Structure formats: C-alpha cells, structure tokens
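We modelled the chain as a single entity of 116 amino acids. Its sequence is:
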Amino acid sequence: MKQVIAIVKPYLAEKVLEELSRAPIEALNVREVKGFGRQKSYLDEYSESEYGQTFLPKVEITIWLDDYRAEETIRRIVQVARSGRMGDGKIFVLPAMSAGEAIDIATAPVSGKKRK
C-alpha cells in the first residue's frame, strides 16, 4: 500500500479531486495548508494578500491506494495540476500500512481506562 501526498494550488484542487474520483483509491483526506518551496524569492507578489510574505496557500491531498495504482494516480494528478510554472506543487510517495493492518478507532481495545 502507498500513501501519496499531493500539494497543489488551491484553484486546481477541485479539478484534481474530480479526476481522483474516477480512480480506485482506498481513502482520501484534503486540507488547506500554507508553505513555500523554491519560489520563496517570488513571495513579494503576494505581499498584499492575507498570507503576508512568508507562506503561500496550497491544498494537500493525501491518498491511500494499492501499490500498483500509485503510478497511474500520480500521472492523473500531474496531468491536471501542472501549469508548467514554478509553484505548481509537489507529490510525495510513501509506504503505508495496508487497510487490514490499520487500527480502527471504533473497535480498538482501550487499555488503562474503562468505558462508562
């Protein structure tokens, strides 16, 4: 199982999610994040925004999927999110536990405290 973390521009997040809705994935999380990469010297353009000169808004999409689906999923994300300009984002691929090994909070044993 793989964990794919895609950090994309906010205005492209919906398009990426729409494309991912067609892909067979186990689970997905989305969150708004702020940060910078190599484009930090170009932050002057955004100094009038609410984010100031430190961070740029991005959307982080975290996906869990089978190993053999990772390459196809990454290709779909790149196809939708690439503008060819600096700041398009990044994709990270990490190993992950299989769904069968994950701990389900609802059914996990509780140690130390008794439920009332």
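As a brief sanity check on the tokenised model: Strands lie at 2-8, 27-35, 56-65, 89-95. The domain at 2-45+52-95 is CATH 3.30.70.120 (Alpha-Beta Plaits).
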